[in-house]
Amino acid sequence: MTYIVNEKCVNCRFTDCVEVCPVDCFYIGENTIVIHPDECIDCGVCEPECPADAIVPDTEMNDELQYWLDFNTKYSTGPDAWPNITESIDPLPDADEWNGKEGKKDLVSTEPGPEE
User: Fold this and answer.
1) Gap between the Cα atoms of 23 and 92, Å rounded
2) Whole-angstrom distance between the N-terminal and C-terminal Cα of the chain?
3) Phi, psi (5° rounding) for residue 17?
4) pLDDT grade for 60, boundaries at 50, 70 and 90
5) Which of 1, 11, 35, 79 is most buried (most C-beta within 10 Å)?
């Protein structure tokens, strides 16, 4: 099992979850973050910290969750990997306006986020 960041993070990019992660398995993109599934130890401390409820366990796999697991894997591993993030940073400027909005999947950027 692993935890997955889904579309609810897009254009919010709250990083409260990063601060509590004991294994530093988060990677930052331009407008979202992802979890490295092989580094995640399934402790679950990140899930309740996310103000957008964007972190979910992969226990009830469906097509949508599989999409986000693949997305998290792609941008946390290999040649497409974004920078690792180990400390909380400010959310995106209009995060509160985007928080809770549906249908953000098509808005996700594949560009890396800022280096620490």
Assistant:
1) 24
2) 28
3) -65, -35
4) confident
5) 35
